[in-house]
Amino acid sequence: MIDAHQHFWRLDRGDYGWLTPAVGPIYRDYLPEHLAPALARNGITSTILVQAAPTVAETRFMLELARAAPFVAGVVGWVDFEAADVADVIGNLAIDEKLVGLRPMIQDIAETGWMLEARLTAAYETMIEHDLVFDALVLPRHLPGLRELVARHPQLNVVLDHAAKPPLKDGNLTDWKREITFLARAPNVVCKLSGLVTEAGSADPATLRDAVDHLLERFGPERLMWGSDWPVCELVCSYDTWRATSDTLLASLTDAQRAFIHSATARKTYGI
Prior knowledge:
Blueprint: E1 2-6, H1 32-41, E2 46-50, H2 56-68, E3 72-77, H3 86-93, E4 99-102, H4 121-129, E5 133-136, H5 143-152, E6 158-160, H6 174-183, E7 189-193, H7 196-200, H8 205-219, E8 224-226, H9 239-249, H10 255-270
Parallel strand pairs: 1-2, 2-3, 3-4, 4-5, 5-6, 6-7, 7-8
Helix pairs in contact: 3-4, 5-6, 8-9
């Protein structure tokens, strides 16, 4: 089993702008030795480590951690997509075989259409050249633009992080469902079954079932991958609780279908 979305951070590095004492229990260091026991308890052998700071320095930090922690199968890093030398930066980072993707922090960018700006084309083309996955950290308002982006770049493999953070606390999923339906028609998009407990503020399967069932219907198990979003999930529940909740939500699937979500989709998408 693969955890397709987890984070590490070390506070003294100082480039996690969002990570302040206000986030409460997760305002501390999270490193491989802190995650290893949860992986062992849940039978997870590999992970994808995802960026948490908008700096190349953090990407290099994650690559160093990946070399020291055998269970980290791949790293999704960050580069400045707007930089004049973005192709060179991506090319240099891609020399490290642990780099499997890149993720701009789109949810924090005020301009909804930012990802469609022409000046970002070099970044997308270089990612395609180096077979890197584009992890889309977006909100529901970004989904129409993301749909246009994947149509422009059909060779770009795109992963929808946290299912675009559906408004589970609000409970009105109508617009999100519509946009997910449209986006899922693009064959170069897969979706992470992750981050939902944070959006809901609850690990109750009943609260999450409508959204999860819609993802299963539109993407199918073959284009879904399981992720913990640890340690962010700890704002709501433990690693083990999210694993148990997701098992409940996927209980009606066959073993073969669950195998896609738990392993095969991540292996194929990230080339691990």
